[in-house]
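[recover] target loaded
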């Protein structure tokens, strides 16, 4: 569990804590390490896929002839980036406390 210092001052900061839930950082345990490894492996695989697509895009025909090739690859890269952003948002919701202000 994380400890917050000077909690007596938190009201003066305008932060409401009623919706907070405990955050457990168990990265030093095998279960936590497995979670982190799984997330990092997934992320690295997505990054590798993007790199491979960028390399593939360089092999598309030049000019108008390669337009469809480039467009298809660009759409797939965009989709992968959106998947990464969605995953990051979900991780944030799962592991970070909500912060509301007055």
């Amino acid at each position: 569990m994380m400890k917050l210092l000077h909690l007596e001052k938190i009201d003066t900061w305008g932060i409401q804590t009623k919706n907070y839930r405990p955050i457990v950082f168990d990265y030093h345990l095998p279960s936590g390490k497995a979670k982190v490894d799984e997330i990092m492996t997934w992320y690295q695989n997505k990054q590798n896929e993007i790199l491979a697509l960028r390399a593939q895009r360089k092999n598309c025909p030049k000019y108008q002839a390669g337009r469809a090739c480039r467009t298809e690859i660009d759409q797939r890269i965009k989709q992968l980036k959106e998947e990464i952003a969605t995953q990051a948002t979900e991780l944030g919701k799962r592991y970070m406390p909500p912060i509301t202000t007055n």
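[recover] notes: Residues 30-58 form the longest helix (29 residues).
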